[in-house]
Amino acid sequence: MAIIITLVVIAVIAVAIIAGMIYVAHKVKNKVQQFATEEAKQLHDSLALPNNTNRYVDMSDVPGNFAPGAVLEQACPEAGTLADSAAAKIPIREGLIWVNAWRRFNGDVEVINKVEGIRPNGVETSSSGLAFTGDKEVKGNQLGTRREVCRADLEKATEYYTENRAALPHIIPNTTTFSMSRNSFETLKKTGSVTIAYQQFIQVFARMVPTPRTAELKRVEPEDVNYPVILNGQPTNLAVIHARGRFEFTGAEKVKNVYTDPSVLSGDGDVFVLDDPANPMMLQFGFGPVFQIRVTSISFPEDKPKPQIEQQLEKQKKAVIYGIYFDFNEATIKKESQPVLKEIADAMKNNPDWVLTVNGYTDNIGGDRYNLELSQRRSAAVKKELVEHYGIAGTRMTTGGSGAANPVDTNDTLEGRARNRRVELIRQ
Question: Residue 140: which of 172, 173, 107, 166 has the closest Cα?
């Protein structure tokens, strides 16, 4: 009898222990799941991603929706002759490059935009850089897209659009991508205010859905203000019109439910547009506390190009180079750098006795050691490109890097950091 009682007691204890372990494991599992859910929600909210509970809402009745990869227009409509671009401060011509930059937690991201060709009724553009799926992403995906901006839209469009995604149409009617339309610009300049919309698209249940934000922009200063930019390799100031307004979501109401935080659809905004009716280029656009795209560098083929680099090396024994572009946080030279690299090569071929030191510089985002190594790798990449693709003898160049040392501008602004990211040539 005693043995039976003992066995029963042991069995009860064992069951209690097992039950306790199961309970603890269950609690731990719940805690882990709760933690993961909270972390995911915080990340989800911080990125303002579509709400998973509403991602499968039918959006086929939302005006302006289309399937990913759809063709909205086969070709641009016929339009009159583009305003005389030759007289523009920034002429719209093949080879025009403008660099959009915006701040991220791990450095400034740049997208290089280029006019690839001028067509009878449109302007073909390309974009190259990195795209990030969210604010927390460290590694971006290579971006390489093209789109055509119709001449008719350069004249009369009321929407401004900056996204570059393969799922979007090659032609998006009633939008511009690098300028304000001339009609809108003339209205702003004449009356001091204009209404425009900033257009974006989100993908919901296999449909691309428009999310327009519309604002009445009013001129802030009565006169033009200076806008710092690197123009054809030289830091300069351009005269721009500064306007401000409140952007409010003007799309279909059901689209708001897709967002975990619909407040991201509205916000106070500022624009800085080049004061030039021939090409009222949008040099800065932003709304809300975070979103801002700023043009930091512009270059275009000149009718009578001057050998600036050769002249600077001849007179000052030093040339500061801004037209060599690298991948984000890398030493890989982008194809858009070739015109400047060719100019350096031509200068060295014209002066066979020259020996140059190639120095790289960065901004101050990131650690000192990393920036130093990055600047060294970039200067070495410039030398390698000149040797392998332009036939310059390697013995004529030495390389070095100074990281964030010796800044030429403040590191507190996008444009200042853009000027600090440079290559310097020193003639020995």
Answer: 107
DSSP secondary structure string, 226-238? EEEEEETTEEEEE
Predicted local confidence at residue 38, as pLDDT: 38
SS3 at position 223: coil
The answer to whether 395 and 387 have CB atoms below 8 angstroms apart is no
SS3 letters for 31-74?
Answer: HHHHHHHHHHHHHHHHHCCECHHHCCCCCCCCCCCECCCCCCCC
Whole-number Å distance between alpha carbons of 258 and 188: 34
CA 45/CA 47 separation, integer angstroms: 5
pLDDT at residue number 25 = 42
Q: Which residues contact 410 (CB under 8 A, 6 or more apart)?
A: 416
Instruction: Report, as ranges of residue numbers, the positions in the chain whose pLDDT lies below 70.
Output: 1-55, 80-86, 134-135
Residue 26 DSSP code: H
Identify the DSSP state of 314.
H
Residue type, 61: D
In this predicted structure, what is the pLDDT of residue 13? 53
Q: What is the pLDDT of residue 10?
A: 53
> Coil, strand, or helix at residue 20?
helix
Give the other-Cβ count within 10 Å of 73's Cβ.
14
List all residues 6 or more positions away from 204 whose beta carbon is below 8 Å from its beta carbon: 50, 54, 55, 56, 57, 59, 255, 258
Give the single-character DSSP code of 333.
B
Domain ranges within the chain, ordered by starting residue:
2-47, 56-299, 308-427
CA-closest candidate to residue 323, choices 407, 418, 410 = 418
Q: Rounded to whole angstroms, how far apart are CA atoms 128 and 145?
A: 7
Rounded CA-CA distance 331/362 in Å is 11
CATH topology of domain 308-427: 60s Ribosomal Protein L30; Chain: A; (3.30.1330)
Q: Residue 103's CB: how many other CB atoms inside 10 A?
A: 15
Report the C-alpha gap between 378 and 360 in whole angstroms. Answer: 6
Between CA 376 and CA 22 the distance in angstroms is: 57
205: left (phi > 0), else alpha (psi -120 to 50), else beta? left
Residue type, 41: K
Phi, psi of 271 (to 5 degrees): -130, 150
Half-sphere exposure for 159 (CA within 13 Å, toward CB): 19
CA 323 to chain centroid, in Å, comes to: 17
Q: What is d(CA 160, CA 165) in angstroms, rounded to the nearest whole number?
A: 16
Q: Are 298 and 97 in contact (CB under 8 A)?
A: yes
